[in-house]
Amino acid sequence: MGRKSNNRAGKGKAKGGKVMDAAQLARKVLNFLDNHFGEEFNSKQIVKKLEIRDSVVKGGVEPILHKLAAGGSISKSPRNYFSSNKEPEFIEGVVDFVNPRFAYIVADAKYKVEEDILIKEADLKNALDGDRVRIMVYPLKGNTGRMEGKVLELLERSRDEFVGRVEISPRFAFVVPDFKKMHHDIFVHKGDLGGAEHNQKVVIKFTEWREGDKNPTGKVTRVLGKAGEHEVEIHSIMAEFGLPFEYPEDVTAEAEEISEEISQKEINSRKDFRGITTFTIDPADAKDFDDAISYRVLDNGNFEIGVHIADVTHYVKPKTGLEKEAYDRATSVYLVDRTIPMLPERLSNGLCSLRPNEDKLTFSCVFEMDENADVVKHWIGRTVIHSDRRFAYEQAQENIDNQEGDFFEELTFLNEMAKKLRKRRFDKGAVNFETVEVKFQLDEKGKPLGLFVKERKDIHKMIEEFMLLANRTVAEFIFDKNKGADTFVYRVHDHPDLERLETFSNFAKKFGHEIKIGEGNRISKALNQLMDEIQGKPEQNVLEQLAIRSMAKAIYTVEPRGHFGLAFKHYTHFTSPIRRYPDMMVHRLLQHYLDEGKSPEAEVWEDKCLHSSDREKRASNAERASINYKQVEFMALAEDKDYEGIVVGVTEWGVFVEITETKCEGMIRVQDMNDDYYEFDEKNMRLIGSKNKKMITLGDKVNVRVVATDIDKRTIDLEFADNESNDKPRKRK
User: Fold this and answer.
1) The whole model's pTM is what?
2) Quick one: 46 exposed, middle or buried, by C-beta within 10 A (0-12, 13-18, 19+)?
3) Beta bridge partners of 297
């Protein structure tokens, strides 16, 4: 043991061991009071709070307090209590709960706060992730170097229901939430379990959370079943993200009452395309066909190509139950084994679906194009069509490849025109993000039998290109009518933040790829070059995903700011009203302007855009969670063998590896790497063995084995295949 020092500990001393002078002590006292705005302290309390132990410094606190009060820097009460005179900032925002110890508040845009505000868990006033709160921002930055504050008022809960697993003890029960950003177990009285048994998954609703209580109290509202079963886990994901399980009875009844008949009067009010060659091209298992393509050669030698979209707003009227439900859902959600549709089946798969050999009402964007795929002119309006053929993507591609079968000449011509449109778009600066999409083969019980990467062929790109053309044309048509002054719903994608792009560029270098970041078109060209380079390589998936994350998020707004990724001055969503509420909004506004209506109030439509963007994010998170669940389950059932992988992340506690064969990601914990002691080199994002000097860095190709899977946490634990302990049996939860 070392010898004890006769000097007192450094509490109450300045750096270097010297007792702090009066000026230093005054600053320390003032900072303390400013960061405890609204609270009063006497001198003894301040000495204790500041942990001052030196008797000389202790004696100096009282005089300094009186001096600061006399100078007006602080206030003094008649009882000799002192408080800050600083004016804090009061703002509203949304909680981003990072970990059990603290959260950030993302301030509302109107406050123009440059950084998120840190709030310690004790100052959150029981606010949870996603809640809206009113906070006080301390006048001075805290020890973290960040703006800090505390919650004054909980304005709105983002959710009061959670999904979790029941743990029952002899005297009480808790529900452990699945949601990773919910850091409190929920207490349940035995009488409020609703019949739930130990280890079952349930939906639980808050009943009380008094200030000062460590845990909220709740009541089980729905028993989902045994943890780990397919239907239970999918229902857990649906409940976790607040996705609806069924339609309200009155909404279903309202949909059933809509007549299938199309009156002659309605047909007469529309442009009739029923005699023109028309077909739909969709996934083989699709039932909702919301877009069709028509084609004919005009007398002047040009070509007429029509993009016909299901006229959903003809059937879904404002202020109806159907409208309210469509707005609330705002989008269809595609989980691994099911679709949760925005509209009831009667509409999505029936009335609005552009099924073959049936007259259907549509909203259309029709182009006259020359052989170079230049648009000579266009027409937008309501139509009636009669589809001649329903193609699955595979069938249409086969007809093009084999140059035979139904409409193979029309399909071939449209494909060539789409290629010209696509080339022109990339020449103007569009970014070519071809993300890897993993699909599962499931048995009748939802068990994953296999997985495959969905291949994008020419036919997919052809349909995409004509939908992009229609969306862009509608947006530009409305913008040009009144130089952007008319309220409209745009799909915008801002230019990327150069700092985030630089971070991505440094990440790509770890995989051996050089990206020269410039501005404007040069950014797009650099990213497109990278996308071409990584095609078919092990790092393709991770770099594509990270490239997308480094971009701004596309959103809906009434502000016509353009779309960076597509290189369009103006863009909207017009082509999928069966599955997206913003497309319904676009149809309504478009018809309003075609009827020479005046511009409506922008704020109302902006609120709808914000809601739609939030719902889109929710759907994306739920879809990702369902894929993640199936990936974990698939690897739990997969063969015990060595897998090739690529290092896609390195942290001080572990190495993240994407298995090349299955595209599933797992983690190797540093504590389990028993061949050496590894230190984390944060600057170069790598681990270095202290003895063997072995380096593990981003982009390394490695061999791994699965050692544990956890369905509840949706995690896969890996180890390096040459680890001495790799003969241990795999753990499955």
Assistant:
1) 0.82
2) buried
3) 303
